[in-house]
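Supplementary notes for students who missed Thursday's class. We covered one full example, reproduced here. Read the sequence, then the structure, then the short commentary at the end.
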Amino acid sequence: MAAVFKSCGSIVLTSLCVRQATIGYLLALASGPAALVVPLVATSPALAGLLGIMLLREKTSTPQLVGIALALVGVVLLSTTG
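Structure (token representation):
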């Protein structure tokens, strides 16, 4: 029975995080051009990868690191041009 409550807690926490992410995305679209907001949101896997490397000490390959670096360079270029 405890496992059921534990999984329900995970579902509730996940639902709250998804709700907040959706609200943040919609607010970003309301306040900025979609041509800038959408590519920035698309870099979320790279940011998740960075968090995994830093917080969870996950092992990464060279191509993964290059991909993360390119995504971050793209964010910098998008935020400085325009």
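Commentary. The two ends are 55 Å apart (CA to CA). The chain has a mean pLDDT of 86. If anything here is unclear, bring it to office hours.
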